[in-house]
């Protein structure tokens, strides 16, 4: 039994130079982010020195943070879910149609968003966990289904005019002392949107879940070694099912936050969100092989991704391919780092 416990803990607790794999990758991610951001502050002018520039990253990428957190949970168990972008698009379109064409209210719209996420989680989680179908294939089908349903719900993009929704969308939470003076000499308060607060709450809740709960330990155990997890009495199928449920539920919530930020419905919304979520998780230190990952790292992965995009744009390289090339290079760098960590771990084992 002792040897089984040791094997079970490899993914989460294996140490290199006295530091766990998870903490090592988290440290690398945080250091890289601060190096990039401080470098941008030094070499790219006053924009990055304003607190609002950083807060705008949280405001614009709140939905991605939520979706990436869900993605990290699934990846920690050794799976993947590429349907999160499609689910987010479907949620935003359904909520937009409900609010604008059916005189709906915000609370029911939120329930619709969570209900859509829950439905995808139930179906995909069952297919992956209990029918043992590859998660990539299941979520690929889910992505196509969600995108198709989005077009069926409504074909054309439109802005939502529901007054209650517009008021909620325009609600800003002022942060005292972090404002700045604009070009005409007026002081402008720094603020965050409601979505950013929700995203940070999700990060905090998932961090606690993964770090201190039995369910969280089960995610790491299943991703680290299925057989050892079974020997220790962990219900592997149920653990995978719960992981996919959480991911899809967060995709539904992220879809509503995305909708709250964008304020419109469109079949093209959230295009590429699933790829950005995977990239953010990897940059944040979550391994594709499972068993290693940290939600705080995922948060910094999203921040790093957005910072890179801002740096490229500020440098005058606004074309989409420069952003893609930069993100690809950064992703390859972190994959190489993960490979080195895995290699060292195997030698230490």
| Main β sheet profile | 2 strands, antiparallel
* Strand-pairing-aware structural class: mainly alpha
Distance between the termini: 18 Å
Instruction: Identify the overall geometry.
Output: globular
Low-pLDDT runs of 5+ residues are: 1-13
Number of helices: 16
Q: Please count the beta strands (DSSP E, at least 2 residues each).
A: 6
Order of helices and strands: HHEEHHHHHHEHEEHHHHEHHH
In order across it, which strands form the biggest sheet? 1-2
Could you report the average pLDDT, rounded to the nearest whole number?
88
- Kindly provide the radius of gyration, computed on alpha-carbon positions and rounded to a whole number of angstroms: 21 Å
User: Fraction of residues in helices?
Assistant: over 70%
Strand content: 5-15%
Describe the structure.
By secondary structure, the protein is mainly alpha-helical. It contains 16 helices and six strands. The strands form three sheets. The chain has a two-stranded antiparallel ribbon. Strand 1 and strand 2 form a beta hairpin. Helix 3 runs parallel beside helix 15, helix 6 runs antiparallel to helix 7 and helix 11 packs across helix 13. It is globular. The N terminus is likely disordered.
């Amino acid at each position: 039994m002792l040897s089984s416990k040791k094997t079970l803990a490899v993914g989460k607790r294996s140490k290199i130079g006295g530091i766990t794999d998870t903490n090592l990758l988290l440290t690398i991610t945080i250091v890289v982010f601060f190096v990039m951001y401080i470098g941008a502050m030094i070499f790219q002018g006053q924009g990055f020195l304003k607190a609002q520039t950083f807060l705008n990253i949280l405001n614009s990428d709140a939905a991605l943070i939520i979706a990436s957190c869900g993605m990290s949970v699934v990846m920690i168990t050794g799976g993947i879910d590429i349907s999160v972008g499609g689910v987010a698009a479907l949620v935003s379109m359904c909520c937009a149609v409900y609010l604008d064409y059916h005189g709906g209210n915000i609370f029911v719209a939120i329930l619709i968003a969570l209900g859509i996420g829950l439905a995808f989680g139930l179906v995909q989680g069952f297919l992956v966990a209990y029918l043992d179908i590859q998660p990539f294939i299941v979520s690929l089908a889910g992505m196509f289904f969600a995108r198709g349903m989005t077009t069926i719900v409504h074909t054309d993009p439109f802005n939502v005019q529901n007054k209650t929704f517009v008021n909620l969308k325009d609600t800003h939470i002022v942060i005292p002392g972090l404002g700045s003076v604009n070009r005409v000499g007026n002081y402008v308060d720094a603020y965050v949107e409601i979505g950013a607060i929700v995203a940070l709450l999700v990060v905090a809740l998932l961090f606690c879940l993964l770090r201190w709960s039995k369910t969280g330990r089960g995610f790491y155990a299943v991703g680290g070694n299925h057989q050892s997890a079974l020997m220790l009495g962990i219900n592997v199928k149920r653990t995978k099912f719960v992981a996919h449920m959480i991911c899809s539920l967060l995709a539904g919530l992220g879809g509503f936050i995305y909708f709250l930020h964008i304020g419109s419905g469109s079949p093209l919304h959230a295009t590429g969100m699933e790829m950005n979520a995977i990239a953010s998780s990897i940059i944040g230190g979550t391994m594709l092989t499972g068993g290693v990952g940290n939600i705080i790292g995922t948060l910094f992965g999203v921040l790093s991704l957005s910072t890179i995009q801002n740096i490229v744009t500020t440098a005058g390289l606004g074309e989409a391919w420069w952003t893609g090339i930069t993100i690809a290079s950064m992703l390859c760098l972190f994959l190489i780092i993960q490979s080195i960590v895995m290699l060292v771990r195997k030698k230490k084992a």
